[in-house]
Amino acid sequence: MKKIKIGYYYIRIFWSPLGDDCNTDKYYLNLNLNNKESICSIVENVLIPELNLFSYKIKLRIKESLKYAINYYPDEKLADAYNKSPTFVKLPDNMNVRDFYIFVWKSIYGEESYQALEKDFYIEIPLEEIYV
What we know:
- The protein is mainly alpha-helical.
- It has 6 helices and 2 strands; from the N terminus they run E-H-H-H-H-H-H-E.
């Protein structure tokens, strides 16, 4: 069976629209993620529109990478993927990082399961191969 391509850098790409660039309204960069309505606003108005700019293949790899990360990355690596992205929006401190990822997942994909397959079904690809 062909392995599902995932990668740490797809997660960083996913969070990157929360960086301070000309495409992100400063209003969103100042929102407090301790408020779930703010998370929903950022997802709806920043993350989803940016995600939709990618090809189907890249969107699928980002989605599968998020699913894999939620299930298999330790909390430190989840936080690292977020914090090392060019984002200026701080992680919420009223929920753990895994719950934050799950909340964002549900805000994007609704009731679709975030449960990953067994690790053997995935291959984590390096940065230099993420667009291949």
